[in-house]
Specification:
Layout (H helix, E strand, L loop, with lengths): L1 H26 L2 H24 L5 H24 L20
Length: about 100
């Protein structure tokens, strides 16, 4: 069983070493680097295009909306101060149904 495990370990190690070596060699090639840069630029342009299609509120939109809400709130507070403070009248109660007295 130890021989089998050591073979698996050696194969795994050799595979990892080969992958690392190939990655290093590929990263040093100008064609690969240029392709990666172009792909990154394309991804960034695609993201910008997608974001431009969305209708996202800008900071200015949010600020204008907040200012409008503040004005409405101030107007409501002003109206509330002008209204006379009166307690609501109690609602009339419905008469209790007559109970038959037998």
């Amino acid at each position: 069983m130890d021989d089998r495990k050591s073979i698996i370990d050696r194969i795994t190690g050799a595979t990892e070493d080969t992958v690392a070596r190939v990655q290093q060699e590929m990263s040093q090639r100008t064609v690969v680097n240029a392709t990666k840069e172009r792909a990154s630029a394309m991804r960034q342009r695609a993201q910008q295009a997608a974001m431009s299609q969305l209708q996202v509120a800008t900071r200015e939109d949010v600020a204008r909306l907040q200012a409008s809400l503040d004005r409405v709130e101030a107007a409501l507070n002003d109206l509330a101060k002008r209204l006379p403070e009166s307690k609501p009248r109690p609602r009339p109660r419905a008469p209790k149904p007559a109970t038959p007295s037998d």
